[in-house]
Specification:
Layout lengths: L13 H11 L4 H7 L6 H8 L2 H22 L3 H12 L12 H6 L2 H4 L2 E11 L6 E10 L3 H10 L3 E2 L3 E2 L13 H24 L1
Helix pairs in contact: 1-2, 1-4, 2-3, 5-8
């Protein structure tokens, strides 16, 4: 009885592993066959491509790539709500000391995210030897109303045309551990995604 192949380990035949690696880079089976060191042969390339060990190893490596992409690129509901909160609960006093781009770079992300526009102008005031270089900085924050409304809708604060659906002093987000809140947000996101995908299939 032959042992079941372990797709988490490189294939025992180096050329087979090279073939899989080439397929992972989106090469065609014919080209991957040559890349692995074989002489070009469409028939042999097709047969090797259909090999169970090859398919299992390729599927495993593809799943790793997908997981890494999700970790690096995925945007969760929690991410969106957090960014809206940075804008909706922003306070200009956190930016009052900002005068230069260096000041802006040193500002925490929680505060700099609220800045929509920053203009730095330098000019001389006075004449001749009395002229003095003056720097003027203007900072404009993003509007707060839209982010706050979007957060309220997400949390279920409003019913259409009926005003607040819950008491205005209700605790909307209990102070749970951050990981637990994130898990709850992800469940809501997955539910919304399934409903969208279901709608597309109809």
């Amino acid at each position: 009885m032959r042992n079941k192949p372990d797709p988490t380990r490189p294939l025992s035949t180096p050329r087979h592993e090279a073939f899989v690696q080439a397929l992972l880079k989106r090469e065609t089976a014919t080209l991957a066959y040559v890349t692995a060191g074989y002489r070009a042969n469409d028939g042999n390339a097709a047969r090797l491509n259909g090999n169970d060990r090859i398919r299992a190893r390729l599927a495993h490596l593809q799943s790793i790539v997908v997981e890494r992409l999700i970790d690096e690129c995925a945007i969760t509901v929690a991410d969106v709500v957090k960014e809206l909160a940075r804008i909706g609960f922003s306070d200009i006093k956190h930016c009052a000391h900002v005068r230069t781009l260096e000041d802006l770079k040193a500002l925490p992300n929680a505060h700099s995210a609220a800045i929509q526009e920053m203009i730095v102008e330098e000019c001389f005031e006075g004449k001749g030897e009395d002229a003095v270089l003056v720097r003027k900085t203007r900072i404009k924050l993003h509007g707060k109303e839209s982010p706050l409304v979007n957060i309220g809708k997400h949390l279920g604060m409003f019913e259409k045309d009926k005003g607040p659906a819950i008491p205005v002093d209700a605790v909307l987000v209990p102070q749970r551990p951050a990981e637990e809140r994130l898990a709850e947000m992800r469940k809501r996101f997955d539910k919304a995604l399934r409903s969208i995908e279901g709608g597309k299939q109809e």
